[in-house]
Task: structure prediction
Amino acid sequence: MTYCVGLLLDRGMILLSDTRTNAGLDNIATYRKMYTFEDPGERVVVILAAGSLSVTQTTIAELNEAIESPEATPESSIMQAPTMLKVAAIIGDTLSKVRLSVDDKLAVMRQGASASLIVAGQRKGGTMRLFLVYPEGNFIEATDDTPFLQIGEHKYGKPILDRIVRPETSIEDGLKAVLLSMDSTLRSNLSVGMPLDLAVILADECRVSSRRRIEAGDPDFVQMSLAWSQALRDSFAKIEV
Result:
């Protein structure tokens, strides 16, 4: 399984994913689940993936082929699409087609495969947008009321996002929120694991403004985790019933 989260803030977007993939307790591996497409200053698209690795990797491969094709058009390429809405539609159609193809191959074994994606991006002259694309290809969009989206094992990391994240939240506080959300998930679910991939897209830069891989044992992440645990214990002790 996995956990991926994206924030849509007034000052930018923050994306975080783990890298653990497992097909049983004795078959655990590390695979990147964050994919970046950018023409710096003109367009940036970041995709986070959760679900069947065969579906997500094939979807990304087909999106890349469409971008590099000599016959690429605004209808087929996410790097030429006129709006981020069209980008989400192209990605949704590609994901749906790949999922159905894989399902057909697995049907003989009475199995299926599924995946979902978070799509974040901005084109020059447009606004930042954040979408959650479902396995069927349809999608929803983050709003001011719910300025974050999650896929995978999201339940453990959702409470802090519900309480903290607002459109006006600063980038610094947004980073803290997604990292603590991931920390809560790592503590409660063994199917989510390090290292982590973190990316920030500042508003109107139309590029990945910063990116970081957080390895197991990263001193800053460990210190933050310990401080959060202590803060929770201190607050718990002060509450009277």
In short: The longest helix spans residues 84-106. The radius of gyration is 18 Å. The longest strand covers residues 43-51. The mean pLDDT is 93.
